[in-house]
Amino acid sequence: MEPGHKPLVDDDGIGAGYSYPRTPSMNVLLVLLGVIEALGVAAIAMVCYWTAHYRGGFAWDGTGQEFNWHPVFMVVGMVFLYGNGIIIYRFLPRLAKKKLKLAHAIIHKAAFVFSVLGLVAVFAFHNATGLPNVYSLHSWLGIGTVVLFNAQWVLGMSTYLLPFASRWIRTLFMPYHRFFGLVIFAMSIATCLMGLTEKLLFTINDTYSSFAPEGILVNCLGLTLVLFGGFVGYIATREDWKRQPLPEEQPINMSIE
Amino acid sequence: MEPGHKPLVDDDGIGAGYSYPRTPSMNVLLVLLGVIEALGVAAIAMVCYWTAHYRGGFAWDGTGQEFNWHPVFMVVGMVFLYGNGIIIYRFLPRLAKKKLKLAHAIIHKAAFVFSVLGLVAVFAFHNATGLPNVYSLHSWLGIGTVVLFNAQWVLGMSTYLLPFASRWIRTLFMPYHRFFGLVIFAMSIATCLMGLTEKLLFTINDTYSSFAPEGILVNCLGLTLVLFGGFVGYIATREDWKRQPLPEEQPINMSIE
Q1: Out of B183, B201, B222, whose CB is closest to A230?
Q2: Which candidate in A102, B7, B125, B204 could, as Cys together with B67 as Cys, close a disulfide (CB 3.0–4.6 Å)?
Q3: pLDDT tens digits, residue range B186-214?
Q4: Which of A232, A159, A192 is nearest to A78 (CA)?
Q5: For chain B, what is the largest distance between any 2 Cα atoms, rounded to a whole number of angstroms?
Q6: Cβ separation of B187 and A215 shorter than 8 Å?
């Protein structure tokens, strides 16, 4: 094999066979990254405005004001941070792989912390007000999503961040890591949509059907979450936008030619 | 180029570069196809049992019995048929490409017919009983999903079934066709989950939180839809399960070597 044709495979077995693209499509990527951040910030602004303006604001006292942290933390953690953690490799392709992997893990750990705080908020509210826990489809899918998300994090860290897994294992596991990362992300957004639906029917059932502004706001929040998720999924799966290994990350070719 | 090394690319530019796998992973594929059909049939059985046993059965008279067709038609069309249409290429890899494409289009057209009937059922029910239309996040996302699904169908048929598009166009468009097919499928399932949540809160809000059997049944239906969608997504995206062109589907190599 000629040295010039050695495959561009790094330690995790990804980024094989492509030279780093310098095409107009990279401009599209940059625009889409901007669109994603705008959508994410808009979603956080909407969920904060909704809970602060229409639902009575925030507290940590077992009332509905404590519940209000639940949608805010879930949108921040399980949508905004989760999505950004997925595409961090597209934002900073020139950063060293090890730093990117660490950032990927830290952002997702932060997302997990938000999700746990979000669960604490809703359980505390239910327990303080005598409401039952974990009976709805929203809660079943939501808890399943958080559990799977954490399992994915632990498996990912064990495989790619700690030094124990062989390159063979890393390469073998990567398609599953990618696939489940996106599926759990989709589950997370679907759970949010169910949660928004639930909360609207619990609170403004009488006026929702006459297009109350609160209902329209939350509907728009839901569509924004879907758009955010769709763009993250597109950027994460488009082959020619995959991060390419830096020159110093190429495995050394030890074969005698 | 030696004839033995010509790339395996068919007219639509897919299935490039792989020899048809004869590995244990093909047995995994067959098992998963069986699991998918079992999940799909279970979902249809659950939605039928729910609406027939708990919600009063079926009619076409503007009452809640007409509404009951809505969840049944949507699960049959926008989940079961939609999912099976996506993976038809994995079921029958030895069938001629043209027949598979026709089957893919026909199954998805049938899914669209079911979705329209499902929309007719809910609009007729709302109009007959004086309920407003199209105010909920479920309805917004649902109608958006059906519109996008139909647009995807028309674009797919124009590009791949009619003889006008060049091979260059077909190859260029294929990643988008795949990506949007799966995203709209995920939107469809998320819309179903919101619809189940809505209907439970409209009908059994008092007993849902005390784990009424109807609520547990519908929760299980929701999880079954998620599992069905997850398996379809996995099968559709796994690279080594992609259908390979049959020998007679190879483009003829006209180059002089």
Answers
A1: B183
A2: B125
A3: 999 999 999 999 999 999 999 999 999 99
A4: A192
A5: 77
A6: no
